[in-house]
Amino acid sequence: MPMDAHPGPLHVLVLGASLRAGSSNARLASLVGRMMTDAGAVVDLAAMRDFDMPLYDGDVEAAHGLPEGALALRDRLERCDAFVLASPEYNASVPGVVKNAIDWVSRVRPQPFKTKHALLLSASPSLVGGNRGLWALRVPLEHLGTRVYPDMFSLAAAHQGFAEDGQLTDPALQERLSETVMAFLRLVEADARYVCLRRRWYEFPGDRTEAPVTQRAED
Predict the structure, then answer these.
(1) Span 159-164, mean pLDDT?
(2) What are the backbone angles phi and psi of residue 206, rounded to the nearest 5°?
(3) How does 77-97 read in b/e, with b if 16+ C-beta sit within 10 Å?
(4) How far is 120 from 116, CA to CA, in rounded Å?
(5) For residue 32, which of 193, 201, 176 has the smallest C-alpha distance?
(6) Strand partners, 43
(7) pLDDT digits over 177-194, tens only?
(8) Measured at the alpha carbon of residue 29, what is the angle toward residues 126 and 12, in degrees to the nearest 5?
């Protein structure tokens, strides 16, 4: 099997997508970051408050270009092989601050979300976790060409979900999270090293990556 010259460990951006200090999603991002570091990856742990940007406005973009926060997030994305997004759920959907960041960064050329692998996580005090928000979050990311990992992880009753050492209180959930993270890293490793696996992630029967709608989204 042909291999790429991909030196060194994988680089993964792990982003806690809540602005609130002490957020459960920040704790979940930190836990996953430690798991990935233990697995040999180089982790860039970040918080959404690191990337300040106004609401997207085409007139502001035309007059002033992209805000520094959007460019900083672009830079962090470009340096990684994959990213993890631990996002809260607001009213059964994507938090506005997360969608706004995606909209701003998507204006960069070349478009930095294209072909990046992503793992989506959520932590919520509700009994259904943040699954509805994660399903909504997949839509703009996949539209932009991100290879969103199918197996998402959502922690319900998150206010009771963490032990003092930062691990999950439920051993079964801790094991499932670990299995999900390790499987995601193996996929990213394979894509980084083996040419034959590239472009296969989103090429389903009848789909063509050169189709106009794909070019509009990804280019």
Answers:
(1) 90
(2) 85, -10
(3) beebbbbbbbbbbbeeebbeb
(4) 13
(5) 176
(6) 12
(7) 999 999 999 999 998 877
(8) 140
